[in-house]
Amino acid sequence: MREILNHQITEAVKKLCLEANTSLSDDVLEALNKALANEKSGTGRKILNELIQNAKIAKENQMAICQDTGFAIVFVELGHDVIIKGRDLKAAVNEGVAQAYTEGYFRKSIVKDPLDRINTKDNTPAIIHTEFVPGENIKIKFLAKGGGAENCSAIKMFKPTHSFEEINDFVLETVKNAGANACPPIIVGVGIGGTFDYAPVLAKKALLRKIGRHSASHETKKWEKELLEKINKTGIGPMGLGGSVTALAVNIERYPCHISSLPVAVTLDCHAHRVREITI
Amino acid sequence: MRLKAPITNKEINALKAGDQVLLSGTIYTARDAAHRLFGKKPPFKTKGAILYYASPTPTKPGAVIGSIGPTTSTRMDAFTPNLLKAGVKITIGKGKRGKEVIAAMKKYKAVYLVVPGGAAALLSKHVKSAKVIAYPDLMSEAVLELEVLDFPAIVAIDAKGRNLFEKSKI
Q1: Measured between CA atoms, how close is B67 to chain A, in angstroms?
Q2: 3-state secondary structure B29-58
Q3: Do the domain assignments include residue B117?
Q4: Which end of chain B is more exposed for a tag (fewer CB within 10 A), N or C?
């Protein structure tokens, strides 16, 4: 058994939040530069240029890339052979989020209750997904999820007899409905399978995969590429003002499901795609 | 084209969808929670005013303001016609606007501008001063009075109803 102190988890989460919100990762920057080279619209190129410039300013000044520093989504892969000493995992993660959002001068965007709408003032609680895995490490993946893009998410319970094309249409319809509101060029996470509650988790997991790293399954990889092409043919473009680059990536995660079901969840992330991971 | 508040009808009529503009002078910020509190009397002079749908990150010591990009405009649609009637001439945000807002823009002579969503650090560099003028309890959603210089934006919908989002299909 390996002992990990709760403050090690807090420190790790804090580091992930601070880095993700101020420094766009290499895969996203590379994708934006590639988009700039491929974009046919002049307005589109102007916007992409501004986004690249924005990332540079944010990094140099250690300030938030986007004012919406998002909901803290944390995926924890907890090794079976780990004992957490001190406070529990949930408290340790939330403490890391609270410290980062306070010290980083990030916006506190979480309200205590959806109807009372009183701000919690430290951007907690995080949404924490925990999975047990073999080994004696803790892997933590962090996603800062902005509200504008999240509001454009959708889920549909398909019939098992529905076709690939019908699923494609649903993904395309979700992207079209989102238009400029999801801050294109977007990253599209698609979760297929599981249950009504699990498909959206798969879609979120799909967002954690680096841009350009396709599914290990040959068939899914092909599907991701096809969908990306279809989405970029919609003409929505950067900021929804028209153009040839609407999405930077489509990532699909699949999971077993019931003989009666075919759940499909789509979650969109803005170009300020803030993902980081660390292993303790 | 350069614009500075208060904006006149003459300036509005000269703008068309697709124009790139640089804003200077006073602009006000407000989003969901502030709009709900406006009621009949917004806490700023509406005649010729510019309203920006935004709520920044907290200001670091020594800085003028934090990151300040636009939020989704359509969430404010229900409140917009009354504000345009009261004299607001320019609204700024991201994404489309509803039919009622576009009709009100034509009726009361107003334009809707967009700025790149997520370009929040870049846009903060065009803000020269900022102060809270109402609802401090709303934290980041409080109404701010900003002085901006050459704040870059694109006319998405003009006062004749020409709409960049409608053209944006290949």
Answers
A1: 5
A2: ECCHHHHHHHCCCCCCCCCCCEEECCCCCC
A3: yes
A4: N
Pairing, β A186-194 against β B90-93: unpaired
Count of structural domains, chain B: 1
Distance CA A148, CA B143 (A): 20
pTM, 2 dp = 0.94
Q: What average pLDDT is seen over chain B?
A: 95
B168 part of a folded domain: no
- Catalytic-residue membership of B126: no
Which pLDDT score is estimated for B75?
96
Full domain range(s) for residue B20:
2-160
The answer as to whether B166 is a domain residue is no
Structural domains of chain A sorted by starting position, each given as residue range(s) with its CATH number in brackets: 2-22+65-145 (3.30.360), 147-272 (3.30.1330)
Q: What is the pLDDT of residues A107-165, one digit of tens each?
A: 999 999 999 999 999 999 999 999 999 999 999 999 999 999 999 999 999 999 999 99
State whether ipTM is beyond 0.85: yes
Q: Does B40 score more than 90 pLDDT? A: no
In 3D space, the residue among A21, A240, A98, A97 whose CA is nearest the CA of residue B95 turns out to be: A240
CB atoms within 10 A of CB A171: 22
Shortest alpha-carbon distance between residue B124 and chain A (Å): 10
B82 touches chain A (CB under 8 A): no
Residue tagged active-site, from B17, B29, B35, B151: B35
- Contact of B67 with chain A, judged by CB distance below 8 Å, is answered with yes
What is the average pLDDT across B60-80? 96
Q: How confident is the model at residue B167 (pLDDT cuts 50, 70, 90)?
A: low
Which CATH number does the domain housing residue B99 bear? 3.20.130.10
> Could you give the angle at the alpha carbon of A75 between the alpha carbons of A15 and A20, nearest 5°?
35
> Which residues neighbour A115 within 8 Å (Cβ) at sequence distance 6 or greater?
none
